[in-house]
Description:
The chain is an alpha+beta fold. The chain is 53% helix and 17% strand.
Amino acid sequence: MVLKEKYMSAARVSEILGITPPSVRRLVREGFLEVKKTKKYKAGSELYFDGGTVKALLPRMPALRRKWHLEENRRIGGKKAAFKRAIDVKKTSRHSNLKKRFLHSLEFYPEKVTSLLRASYFLYHLNHYAKTGEEYLYDLKGEILKKFTDDFTDVEGLNIIFIEGAQKVILCDGCRDRARNMGISYLKYKNNHGGCSRCQREENYYSLFEFRVEYGEHKFCFHTPYKTAKKWFENIAELPHKIREKGEDEAFLFGRPISEGEARAVTLKEVTGELESFLGTYY
Ligand SMILES: [Zn+2]
């Protein structure tokens, strides 16, 4: 392996060292790696590291892994830790098989459908990485969904739905006083009494857009906040509408975190590489 890069992203570091991005942050916390540069995004920062330091860490990884295993054994008990690691190995092979099967199945679809499904698959994994500390990835997610909006239709299996959510109410001083006098929280006051005409309101604060990609045996579903995507549509009223149920929580919005096993089967480097090349494709 020739490693000459001066700066390496966390994605590249995790690929080279064979660890997940959360483990890269662990190396930082434990003093083995130092953040040399950060790149700011709307949704967070991407970290960059010194290529030489990463290269020097490579031969030390087996010992570091053993240290992490021992710490995990102490934390949750040796038997449980060994079981957890065995499950993780299984997950890696399960996700690798899923990936192979998925990519193979794409050979049978029309070219543009293949492109949309492939991007959806990697976007699904991007979501998990974003949920596990790489928040800056939400910017890339936005660009991908924008391209979905511009270049694809229901012919390729894309359907976009507007999910109408509540407005955000920021209580005015008078309403805050009343809540305090009643001895209840602002949130409870809002739920019980609403705001008055002097309170500030942000319409559609809890609204979002749902992107459904369904073709053949494949099905993906993504969400993006109203604020991010509203400018992509000339007329939101023309989109199919749904009312957002109260109680649908944030998990609905952001999906689940990535597991170690999954991260080894579909690396962050692969995910961002695939999605960036999708962005560069013209139809
Ligand atoms: Zn008020």
